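Narrative of activities, Objective 1.

The group set out to show that a structural description can be obtained from nothing but a protein's sequence at a throughput compatible with the screening campaign. Below is one input-output pair from the validation batch, recorded exactly as produced.
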Amino acid sequence: MRLQGAIFDLDGALLDRAGASLPGLDPFLSLMKVEDVWMYLVTGGSSAQARRVLDHSGLSPFFRGILSAPEHGVSVTAPALYEKAVRRLRTALPATAVFTAREDMVPVLKAAGFPVVLVGPGHPPELQAMADQVIKDYGAMTRRVGG
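Output recorded for this entry:
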């Protein structure tokens, strides 16, 4: 099934600890947009703060919306938050990948039926084996999709 949508976890899956975009992120998001993959953001903080972060980093145009876990009364690790993003994207759950750096999210998302892309280095081998894709940064994804 072709990728229809992507949900990104703001914490660690888009920006590094200093607030800079992860390597290769901008070209990857541009390619996803050209390929008509709709994207949503999930955050453990407020949607207003997430919007400021996206605006500051120039990433706002890539995302159709933001879901804030506290504003919806759930944990950022609750599958219901990601399922709500799928409904808002109007995509099929199996064709909507979740990009996360949160190790605790991999088994939760897999159990809910999501394809999972584990972002960043240093994850335990058992979680890497559970994820559908493991990437150190987005440069590898751009080369894979575009090349």
